[in-house]
Design goal:
The protein has five helices and eight strands; from the N terminus they run E-E-H-E-H-E-E-H-E-E-H-H-E. It is of the alpha+beta class.
Length: 203
């Protein structure tokens, strides 16, 4: 099936000087749109219409895009280990640090697949508690370089959500962004706050 007409070319999405870059990898399908988010966190624009071309918010044929931080499962697992996060299975509390114990084996640890499956929600809940704002876990249709995104909002609800996020004040919102940005860039990891869309939604 051919892709519907987009307001701007898929291969060259300009937004305040930014350009979309295809994320490569086995089965890769995410595209990232770089813009203000490559600047320091305290310089981020809080007006979504300054981040993308306005037609991305009004054109029903525009691709669904999410504004957030992309991550790999490996990064989230290591983050959960470093911060001693845990998952509650009924009355049982399973700590991620168990995955870093000497002699650990994926094959011999009965909860490994469970911890891997739940780690996005575990880390999201941890970040929400630290920064005081709600995040959404979004997944690409096909996994590529990244496994998912912690999203603040999409291009389809950005105008509403930015208003909600700014209610406590601009300073608090910027502080919250800084907390998440720091968390997603630990141990030399490079992760910017960007717009992401899944090209396979038109396949």
């Amino acid at each position: 099936m051919s892709e519907p007409a987009l307001p701007i070319s898929n291969h060259q999405i300009h937004s305040s000087g930014g350009v979309a870059n295809q994320v490569s990898g086995v089965g890769g399908s995410w595209s990232r749109v770089s813009h203000h988010a490559t600047r320091p966190v305290n310089k981020l624009s809080l007006d979504p219409c300054e981040q993308l071309h306005p037609s991305f918010y009004t054109n029903p044929k525009a691709p669904l895009m999410f504004y957030g931080w992309a991550w790999t499962n490996d990064y989230l697992i290591n983050y959960a280990i470093r911060h001693d996060l845990s998952y509650h299975l009924g009355d049982l509390e399973i700590h991620y640090i168990a995955l870093a114990e000497p002699g650990f084996s994926k094959e011999n640890f009965r909860y490994y697949k469970l911890l891997l499956y739940e780690v996005p929600e575990v880390v999201k809940t941890h970040l929400e508690a630290r920064c005081g704002i709600q995040l959404n876990v979004e997944f690409p249709v096909e996994r590529g370089e990244y496994d998912g995104v912690f999203a603040l909002y999409s291009n389809r609800n950005a105008l509403f959500h930015v208003e909600v996020l700014l209610k406590p004040g601009v300073a608090k919102f910027k502080k919250a962004l800084g907390i998440i940005h720091t968390a997603m860039n630990e141990k030399g990891n490079k992760c910017d706050l960007l717009w992401w869309h899944c090209r396979d939604q038109y396949a």
